[in-house]
Structures are given as C-alpha cells and as structure tokens.
UniProtKB/TrEMBL annotation:
Biased composition (Pro residues): 19-30
Protein known as: coproporphyrinogen oxidase
SUPFAM superfamilies: Coproporphyrinogen III oxidase
Family the UniProt entry places it in: Belongs to the aerobic coproporphyrinogen-III oxidase family.
NCBIfam families xref list: PRK05330.1 (NF003727)
Keyword Transit peptide: yes
Compartment annotation: Plastid, Chloroplast
Catalytic activity line of the entry: coproporphyrinogen III + O2 + 2 H(+) = protoporphyrinogen IX + 2 CO2 + 2 H2O
Superkingdom field: Eukaryota
Pfam family, one: Coprogen_oxidas
C-alpha cells in the first residue's frame, strides 16, 4: 500500500491521516532507552532518559471544529509544491466523496477534522453501511515535524538503508482511500497519492534533504468481468501515456509485484498502477502526473460500480467475496508499507485500519473448483495478466 498513511492500506497516507479520538492509555511508540522532547520554539530535539519522559515524536491529533483553508503554516507560499499538492488532494477528496455518495443514493460521509501540535493536520471521511457501500474511507493529511528513524525507514523501505541515524525532519502529504462495496460483483478499489520531503541537510543527523512522490490505484474484485477490468486499466494507461509511454507498463508491473501476498503466492487483486520513491523526473511533471492519476479515479471506477451494484447474488457468491476480503486484510496487516509507517509513527489505530472491510472470512483449506468463476479470479491473482 498500502506508504505512509492512516488509511494505508494502505496503502497507505492512510496512516498519516488519523481522525480525532482520545489518547490511548499506552503510547504505541515508546523507545526502550530514550524518548525525545521537542522544543516548540526552536524545533530542536533533546535525547533524555525514558524514565524522565515518554512521548511519541509524532504527536497525537487534536479535534478541530472546522476545516482550515490550508494545513500549512501561515507564511507558506501558495505556489510551492507543498501548497499545490495539498490543494490537489483536497479537491480530489471532495470529488471522490461526492461520486461515492451519489452512487449510494442516501448515505453520507462522516467527517473528522484534526490538527497536530507539531504541524499540519487532516480530514478523515468515512461512509459506513450504506445501500451500496459496506465501508468507504477517503482521508487526506498534511503533516510535518520530526519522525523517528524507524518511521523514516518504513516510509522509504530499502531506499533508506544508507541514511544517517537520528530523528528526521519531514513533510508528508497525501490522499488515501479504500472503497468496499456490498455486492460481490462490485469490486473494491484502493488509491493513494502522496508527496514526501525530508528537510535535514546532508551533514546533519538523520536523512539527507530530498523529496519524492508515490501512489497508485488498484482494483480488487471477487469476480472477473473482463470488460470492467479492461476499462479500469485503460483509464490508468491513458493517464500514464500523457506523460511517458513507459509509465503504464512499468507501474503496472510494479503494482502486480507490490500487492503480492508472499505466504499465499498470489496477488491481492487485479492490479492497476503503483509507484513509490519517484524523484528521477522533473518535480513539476510528477506533480502534474499525480494530479492526473487522482483525477482518473472516478472515471475509472464509478462506471463499474453503476453497472454491478444492483446485480442479484447468492449466499455462496457473498461468501467468496468475504474470503477475498480476508486476503485484503492479510496483505494490509502483514506487508503494506503505509500500515507499517502509521504504526511506527504512533498514529491512531482506528484511522490506520480504516482501510479494512467491516466483514471478512477465512475458511480452512478452501479451494475453488477448477474452471469455476471463483477459480478464474484466483488464477488471475496468481498469474497476472495484461488487460490492455
């Protein structure tokens, strides 16, 4: 996933966008020997014995009554990449939520706005148990401050192997969403787009100064309607082709490889596009590319939902959907980088796990009959196909 986020799943910044809640009794991140205190005036860090103070480096969120115009500091430039990325993800959140509510025909999103004492905040929206949607979450976050080295390694994965030890000044912004329909013929969708910066100079403890983009959109059906999968992948390819003809084949394979459940030897779903740690192109071009991808979510997905949301189904077909949801849970909890990032940064557990479905199922040694529709889906998850 799911990168850093409160939805994460996935991918997550699912994990960076927690919604308001009381502080947990025990902080999720508490180093064995040392914790850090932040001097709010100078933003400096001091290592002190944990017997003196125990606190998370990324502070807990504070509920807010209204959405601010921006989560950036007052002196931030509106023309900066940070500001324009925030504007993009907030507009995408509004667009996707409006489309989801329209498809449901009655249910609405519950919204929580939150801020962080160290900098930034987010908007968490969840729609639950509607006519069409079992659970739909669309979260945005814009957070900055200092993170522990464990969180930086989770955010960067293998690419962080050579960074200097120590706390890492960072900026992270993203939109993360997982949409679980009730009907087993309507597919689950996950998308996540994020922008990340580390601010430490090269000679300071922590990470070198750098930036990168990440994200993707992928489809997880329980049953294959080939025309739906082709439509979905065609929209992803069209978005990629506007910027570089190599993007779709490269990011499609990256998606197939990333959403791989190793202990099952199968993919979570039928893929889409995925990329991470992307900074080897012009920054302006990548900002435009991320915008195009986010704007492609509704046309790629909602037409499929409209065709499938009211189809009749049997109890057996619903049980198969629940089994595939179990695979979704397994991937998010075991492998998703976004989930890992959220847990290591002490995020709110309800927000980190908002990507999980309301219901799922595990049966002992379940094997679909060869040649059945269920078998065809499993075969496509084991052997990724070229859809366009």
């Amino acid at each position: 996933m799911p990168p850093p986020a409160t939805l994460s799943a996935s991918s997550s910044f699912t994990l960076l966008s927690p919604s308001p809640s009381p502080k947990p009794k025990f902080p999720p991140f508490s180093p064995k020997r040392h914790s850090f205190t932040i001097n709010p005036r100078h933003h400096s860090l001091h290592s002190v014995p944990s017997s003196t103070v125990r606190c998370t480096v990324i502070e807990k969120e504070t509920p807010e009554a209204q959405r601010p115009d921006t989560f950036l500091r007052a002196n931030s430039s509106s023309s900066s990449v940070r500001a324009r990325f925030e504007k993009m993800i907030r507009e995408a959140q509004d667009t996707v939520c409006a489309a989801i509510e329209a498809a449901d025909g009655g249910a609405t999103f519950k919204e929580d706005v939150w801020s962080r004492p160290g900098g930034g905040g987010g908007i968490s929206r969840v729609l639950q148990d509607g006519a069409v949607w079992e659970k739909a979450g669309v979260n945005v976050s814009v957070v900055y401050g200092v993170m522990p080295p464990e969180a930086y390694r989770a955010a960067k994965g293998a690419a962080a192997a050579d960074h200097k030890p120590g706390p890492v000044p960072f900026f992270a912004s993203g939109i993360s969403s997982v949409l679980h329909p009730k009907n087993p013929f309507a597919p689950t969708l996950h998308f996540n787009y994020r922008y990340f910066e580390t601010d430490a100079p090269q000679d300071a403890p922590g990470a070198p100064r750098q930036w990168w983009f990440g994200g993707g959109t992928d489809l997880t059906p329980a049953y294959i309607f080939e025309e739906d999968v082709k439509h979905f992948h065609s929209v992803q390819k069209s978005a990629c082709d506007k910027f570089d003809p190599t993007f779709y084949p490269r990011f499609k394979k990256w998606c197939d490889d990333y959403f791989y459940i190793k202990h099952r030897d199968e993919r979570r779903g039928l893929g889409g596009i995925f990329f991470d740690d992307l900074n080897d192109y012009d920054q302006e071009m990548l900002l435009s590319f991320a915008t195009e991808c986010a704007n492609s979510v509704v046309p790629a997905y909602v037409p499929i939902i409209e065709k499938r949301k009211d189809l009749p189904f049997t109890d057996q077909q619903k049980a198969w959907q629940q089994l595939r949801r179990g695979r979704y849970v397994e991937f998010n909890l075991v492998y998703d980088r976004g989930t890992t990032f959220g847990l290591k940064t002490g995020g709110r557990i309800e927000s980190i796990l908002v990507s999980l479905p309301l219901t799922a199922r595990w049966e002992y040694d379940h094997k679909p009959e060869e040649g059945s529709e269920e078998w065809k889906l499993l075969d496509a998850c084991i052997n990724p196909k070229e859809w366009v």
